[in-house]
Amino acid sequence: MDLRQLRYFVTVAETGHMTRAAALLGIQQPPLSQQIKALEQQLGLPLLQRHPKGVSLTDGGRLLLVEARRLLQDFGEMRERMERLASGQQGLLSVGFTSSAAAHAYTPAVLRACRSRHPGIALTLSEDNAAALIEAVAKARLHCAFVRVPVTRPDALVFETLLSEPALLAVPLDHRLAGTARNRHTAVPLAELHGEALILVRRPGAAGLYANLLSLCERSGVQPRIAAEVERMMTNLNLVAAGAGISIVPASMRGAHAHSIVYRPLPKNAALQAPLTLVYRQADQLGTMASFLNLAREIALEHA
Mean pLDDT in the chain? Predict the structure, then answer.
């Protein structure tokens, strides 16, 4: 027994006539009769009573009609669900983000738009540090993740820069580099970081935004003192607010601890940028992931 035979049987049962059913199905009457007979043989009981004016259902035929309609409806609904999944309109999408990526208005805008435009996609969200998120994407525990500067770059992953913004110097309110209300929009020379207690967000020895800062300082002959290395940007800012040191953060985080931290620009020639990067698997760009990628790129253009 297969779905084709069940569809043939339901059409015959609903029309009450073999020839009319064959016309509706787009086949000849003899093959249709053969398929119905084969179905009766498989089930071991007659389904139709044949007479000159057409056919009528036996008791077994009436029972099978109820079951066949249900099976065909379930199959149709399953096929529609799979088509929606293949087209990226339905399915599960697991998205990770770092706290600094989430602080940018772009990230929640993408997630809101995904829920609004693709209600059939069930989003699961998780926050972690960049290294852990990249590892989770590589091992297929996440479909994608928003990070800043990637700390590792496994070959099977794509690192797509969606946006970029300047990095700002974050200093405690009473720090000498906090300046005054008049000059807080003035860039702080890189040389001013010499000897300062610097708080980094990274795994020890890993690449990333802070590795870029240290490389820039080294080329300029500036030697800050590493006061702490933490895993999350908000931990970093909590320490800055407490007076434990200074740091750099993406410009979109300047509102955090607004009463305890002063955010000042670095010189333009420092060229220290904080990108917003979407990490995903090279082999996973179909279905829901394709829909999310298209949406992420579209909204990035709006925020650029």
Answer: 89
Say if CB 231 and CB 212 are below 8 A apart: no
- Tens digits of per-residue pLDDT, 193-220? 999 999 988 765 445 778 888 888 999 8
Measure CA of the first residue to CA of the last residue in the chain; give whole Å.
58
| Ranges of the chain whose pLDDT falls below 70 | 81-90, 203-207, 271
Domains of the chain: 3-86 (1.10.10.10), 91-162+276-303 (3.40.190.10), 164-272 (3.40.190.10)
Rounded to whole angstroms, how far apart are CA atoms 283 and 297? 18
Containing 131, the helix (H) or strand (E) segment is helix 130-138
What the block records as the tokens of 285 is: 């760009």
Is the separation of the CB atoms in 114 and 121 below 8 Å? yes
Residue 91, by phi and psi: left (phi above 0), alpha (psi -120 to 50) or beta? left
Longest dimension (CA), the chain: 104
**Crossing angle of helices 59-86/3-15, nearest 10°?**
120
Q: Residue 104: which H helix or E strand, with range?
A: none
List Cα–Cα distances, 126 to 94, 95, 249, in angstroms.
8, 7, 21
Determine contact, residues 157/281, Cβ cutoff 8 Å.
yes
